[in-house]
Amino acid sequence: MRHYSAKRILSLPRLSHLLYDDQNNFTPERLITDLGLYEGVLIDASNITMHITIIPDPSLGKDREIVNKMIVSDDVKSLHSFLLFKDNIMLPCSECRRNQPFSPVVAFNPQRQRFIIDKENEKDEAKTIKIPIEKSVKEFSFQNNPFGPITGSYLSCNDELSLSGNLSDEKKDTESAALSCVNGISLYFSEIRRDFVCSLNNDHHVTAYFIIHKAEDACKEQKQSADYEKLKYCLVLEKVGQEPSMADLQMFDIEKYKKVLSDESFRDFSMALGLHANGVGCGSLLYLRRIYETLIKNAQDKCSLMSEWDEEEYNKIKHFNDKIEYLEAFGAKIIPDELSDVKAKIYGWLSKGVHELSEQESMELFPYLKYAIELILDEQIAQKEKEEKLKELKKKLQK
After folding, report:
1. In Å, what is the CA distance from 99 to each residue of 34, 96, 251, 381?
2. Stretch 9-33: mean pLDDT, rounded?
3. What's the whole-model pTM score?
4. Are residues 270 and 387 in the same domain?
């Protein structure tokens, strides 16, 4: 479990924002493909909604407020949706080497799963972690099997609770309900396993493991403050395992970039994915920066072949972004138009991630900077394919 400051915990990405896009489409695959190992997201249980009915009460000489229904926060709803969804999702299949529909298996908590082993006929099971819980009178051992067959105590949860009671103090009642929500999730969903099966081949699986802990337990500052007070109503969901790894799932997706990357730069890209998949944020951005610098160096090498090129003048340029402007003035198209608004910030953020940001901040930044690099490479691939087609066209028509 990672530890953060109270302020940092409250600034973590919200689970509801990760699982729903701007058009409110459910995107559960992002917990598999976008959330790095040991990366945390916030579950804020405090935003509880009450449905209240006002009933006149002549005996009291005032109206009574009756609570009919209590609805959990958006983050808790999102957690429930992730635990219970049954529709297929698109995931990279490391065996098929392409994106495939995957069907979800029912989620469960491995630490609440029990199976029985006869002590007289006990057999070792490969890739199984066995944690003794208790012994029965017949010397059978009940044990947890977090990575064993997909059977166990399955999860259930509700977004709404129907009630019929007087409202005493709305603030206190919602705070009490939020605490109950936090305690319930901590008790039943402290560990989560979700399995997904490839629609093309049932032997191809993706499995993800998560833990959920109270935000107070993840806070390294055990002191009272306004931020720390808010933590009692929050939890942190953290990915602690995945098979195949994020790097394995993404590796086939970057093979197309071999067309425009040198062997060394492709190794850098692979290394960046591997480091990010294993929770190394700053190191992963270091390798992305190396790729970006190489792309600029390649553009410089092409421009240096032009008769009007002035190497001495170029070397006098100190700022990296000014070098890009100088090269593009020579006709070297480096940054796609789609990135024009952030062109001047890409290198700065890559460097900031290497030298200034925390591992967690770099982990969160990585997918966006990776996407920027991919857009640049996609543009180069499209240009290369266009040139090859034109070459073939001219060759054919000039016969």
Report:
1. 15, 8, 12, 20
2. 91
3. 0.68
4. yes
